[in-house]
Amino acid sequence: VCQVPVAEGKSVQQTVDILHKKLEQLGAVKQGSFCVDCETYHATGSVTGQPNKLLYVMHNSETPLSCLALFEGGPCLVADANFDVLMVKLKSHFQNAKGHKVECRGSRYRYCDFLIKVGTVTMSSSARGISVEVEYCPCVVPGDCWNLTKEFMQSFLGPSVPELPSVFAAKPEGLFAPADCVDTMT
Amino acid sequence: MEAPPVTVMPVTGGTINMMEYLLQGSVLDQALESLLHRLRGLCDNMEPETFTDHELVYLLKGQQGNPFILRARRSLSHPTSPWHLRYLGQPEVGDKSRHSLVRNCVDVAASHSLPEFLNEMGFRMDHEFVANGHIFRKGAMKIVVTKLSRILVPGNTENTERLSLSYLGGAECVGSCRPGHCVGGHAQLC
C-alpha cells in the first residue's frame, strides 16, 4: 500500500482518473469497487498512568465478514464482524473518536495476477489523499515477489514507488497475513 | 476473482440484541451414562461429539460500577480453531414462571493473538478452567454435559484437578426473538 502524491495543478479526483486511465492503457480490467475503513478508539480510563495507546478497528471489503483490530505498535487481532458489536458494549471503556474515521474508497482493477486498488482517502468527508494498493496474488511470501511488484508499480506510478514496508522487511521469508496488510495501511 | 460486495453494515438491529436462553442443572458422576443415553434419544440424530475446551475469564475494572467480563474459550482438541470470545450481560429479571436464564450475549470469533490483545486493552485474567464433555443438538438448541476442572499451574492445561463429583448439564439457545420457542424446548428436555 502506498501513498501517491496528487499531480501538480490537478485535484485528487483528476489524479485518480489519470491513474485509472494508465491502468486501462496497460490492459487492466476494472472489477468493481472496494472500501477500507478505519475507526479510532481510545481508552477512557488510564490503565497504568501512562498515555493510553490508540486502538484502530478496520474493515476491508475484500474480507467482508472480518474485522481487524490493531494497537499502535502492538498486537493485532483478526475477529469476525461481531467485534463491532462488542466495541459498542465497551463504549464506557473505549470511546470512538468519530471525527477520526478514515475511509479509502475506489475502483478495483485486475491485471493478470495483479490486483490494483486505487482509492481516495477521506476523513470526515474531505479528501485527504490517494492510496494505491497492489497485490501479487499467486505469492504469499512478500520477500520473494517484492521486486516484481515494485517493477509493476513503477510502470504506472512512475517514481513515487515506496520501499519494502518495514513489516515485511522484518520477516522476508515469512508468510503474508492480513494483519501485515493492516499494519501497512495504518 | 470477483469483487466482494461493498456494503456498510450498520451496528444496530439483530446482532446487537442477541439473547442467550440458558437452563442448567447437574448430575452426579454415576448418573452420566444414563443421562447421555437419554439425550441421545431426545436430541437430533448425529454422531455424539466430545469436546475439551480451555476457558479464561477476563475482567476490565472501570472507574465505577461492576467490572466488564469477557470469556475467551479455545478448543484443546482442535488447536488450530479460532478462539471464541463471549460477552454475557446481566440476566433479565421479569417473568418468574420462566425457568431459563435470559441474558444479552455477543459472540466473536477471534485469532490466536486474543489473550495478548485483551491484556493490551486492559483486561486481566481472573480465572481459567478446563471444560470437557459431550455436546448434542436439538434444532437451534445446544445441549452440553460438562465436567469442569481446575488448572493447578496457570497456563498449564495438562495438569488439572476435577472441581466436583458431578457433571454440569446445560441447554442453551441463542436468538434475537421467539423466546417461547426456546423455553418450550428447554421444558421438553427437563
Briefly say what this structure is:
With 186 residues, chain A is of the alpha+beta class. Chain A has helices at 12-26, 83-89, 142-157, 166-169, 178-185; strands at residues 2-4, 29-43, 54-60, 66-71, 76-80, 94-96, 102-111, 114-123, 126-136.
H-E string of chain B = EHEEEEHEEEEH
Average pLDDT rating of chain A: 77
Strands of chain A, total number: 9
Please identify the structural class of chain A as seen in this structure: alpha+beta
Structural class of chain B: alpha+beta
How many helix segments of chain B?
3
Helix content of chain A: 25-40%
* Approximate shape of chain B: globular
Strand order, sheet with most strands of chain B: 1-5-4-3-2-6-7-9
Name the biggest interface.
A-B, 41 and 33 residues
Provide a descriptive summary of the structure in words.
- The complex is a heterodimer of chains A (186) and B (190).
- Chain A has 186 residues and is of the alpha+beta class.
- Helices cover 27% and strands 38% of the residues of chain A.
- In chain A, strands 1, 2, 3, 4, 5, 6, 7, 8 and 9 form a nine-stranded antiparallel sheet that branches.
- In chain A, strand 4 and strand 5 form a beta hairpin.
- Chain B has 190 residues and is of the alpha+beta class.
- Chain B is built from three helices and nine strands, in the order E-H-E-E-E-E-H-E-E-E-E-H.
- Chain B has helices spanning 32-42, 114-121, 179-189, and strands at 19-28, 49-60, 68-75, 83-91, 101-110, 124-138, 141-151, 160-162, 166-175.
- Chain B has an eight-stranded antiparallel beta barrel with strand order 1-5-4-3-2-6-7-9.
- In chain B, a hairpin with a 7-residue loop joins strand 2 (49-60) and strand 3 (68-75).
